[in-house]
Design brief:
This protein is mainly alpha-helical. It has a domain of about 40 residues. About 60% of the residues lie in helices and about 0% in strands. Helix 2 packs across helix 3. The radius of gyration is 21 Å and the shape is elongated. It starts with 7 loop residues before the first helix and ends with a helix.
């Protein structure tokens, strides 16, 4: 089989720098999102006060602020 010649550990090691970069981007974005949740005081009640129409929806308003902060909109 053609895969017998591949050393997966060697290939993974050769990609370590790219994996580290992707992980650093992931960590940066995760911190940014968590900070936005914290800054806007997102709580469980923001997720279960939904009418389905979006009118006077406290959760939607807060999550709009979170998105605006995360994406600098």
């Amino acid at each position: 089989m053609m895969y017998e010649n591949f050393d997966i550990n060697k290939i993974e090691k050769s990609l370590e720098e790219q994996f580290d970069y992707v992980n650093s981007v992931r960590d940066f974005n995760q911190r940014k999102v968590l900070k936005a949740f914290f800054d806007n005081k997102v709580a469980p009640e923001h997720f279960y006060t939904v009418s389905g129409y979006g009118h006077d929806d406290m959760g939607r308003e807060v999550l709009d602020k979170v998105c605006a902060q995360v994406f600098k909109a």
